[in-house]
Fold:
Amino acid sequence: MPTKDAKAVFFVKTFDGDLRHRALHFHEHAPVVEGLWVRVYFHDSEMIEGIISNTREFVLETGFFLRPTDPNGNNSLVYVLKGGLKDFHILGLRSFPKI
Structure:
């Protein structure tokens, strides 16, 4: 399937969707997933926050996988195509606590 005009591929929990807008924020009680915590803006003004791998692939490849930080949202995984991005912000680094 050609993706040249797509902004992302969304892997969803249900096809019913959730059209309500929720303020996104860091979810303290969600499982810790290591990586870069980012906020991405698409050209159509949609915004999503999530965790991406802290590797060179997200810089060098045409897209990257993003695991949304909202445990109550409908998206379980998103493959973001860089051509659909308007803006990209690194919000922090998530890592497992040192014991």
